[in-house]
Specification:
Elements: H1 3-13, H2 20-25, H3 29-45, H4 50-62, H5 68-71, H6 77-89, H7 103-109, H8 118-128, H9 131-137, H10 147-154, H11 163-179, H12 187-191, H13 198-208, H14 212-221
Helix pairs in contact: 3-4, 4-6, 7-10, 8-11, 13-14
Length: 228
């Protein structure tokens, strides 16, 4: 077991919660990411300690930025849900790693087909008025792709999302494009080098506000997306 995890466990066992922030500041980014992942995994293993571990994460991240190395590890809806309260207090939704990806990029790119994140994220925006989350939805990474575009381009999509998740995804597309109408133009450039299945074509058409036939033609021509 890593020393940073041993230290964290020792603090928690003795309820030395005031020391957690100072300890965290002394760690490398990789060790910080390890501590955060340990909190999440502990909460998953011991549901009775879920709220306690979540509050510890909030306590640590209230005064510390999200380590960029952790962004690529926070890849599931369950992990996003666990860290949402902490990300809200430290502007963590806007944090980007070396590839320009936010937490939303990571979660949308690696979704569990049986546990998609779109309805959850849409609900956070609608009912909690999270401005940082709304901004993160339209934030392009270094490839020029927003989180939704990352989902369309890279996620494993064996079928079209179920009805309520599909409706939420369409709503997220609309929210994104109200903020950054030009962001969608990079998607075709990425799709040209990928294998595109039927689901990807359908979602691309919805995202680009084109017919499926138009998207197929654009991909075959390898042109940039014309401005609407």
């Amino acid at each position: 077991m890593e020393l940073c995890i041993q230290l964290l466990n020792a603090r928690l066992a003795k309820y030395q919660l005031d020391e957690l922030d100072n300890d965290f500041k002394q760690l490398t980014p990789a060790q910080q990411a390890s501590q955060l992942m340990h909190l999440y995994q502990s909460a998953q293993r011991m549901s009775v300690k879920y709220n306690f571990m979540q509050n510890v994460a909030i306590r640590i991240l209230t005064n510390n930025p999200l380590p960029t190395s952790f962004i690529s590890q926070l890849s599931t809806l369950d992990a996003l849900s666990f860290f949402t309260p902490a990300l809200k207090v430290n502007k963590g939704f806007l944090a980007q790693n070396e590839a320009g990806n936010t937490v939303l990029h990571t979660v949308f790119k690696h979704p569990d087909a049986d546990n998609l994140p779109f309805n959850y994220v849409r609900s956070l925006m609608l009912f909690e008025s999270n401005d940082d989350l709304l901004k993160a939805l339209a934030q392009p990474n270094l490839q020029g792709l927003t989180p939704v575009a990352c989902y369309i381009a890279y996620a494993n999509k064996p079928t079209t999302p179920i009805k309520h998740e599909f409706s939420a995804l369409l709503a997220l597309m609309e929210m994104e494009q109200k903020q950054n109408a030009q962001a969608k133009q990079q998607l075709l450039n990425v799709l040209q080098s990928n294998t595109v299945n039927e689901t990807t074509l359908l979602l691309s058409a919805a995202y680009l506000q084109r017919s499926i036939t138009q998207v197929i033609n654009l991909l075959s021509q390898k042109d940039n997306i014309p401005h609407s």
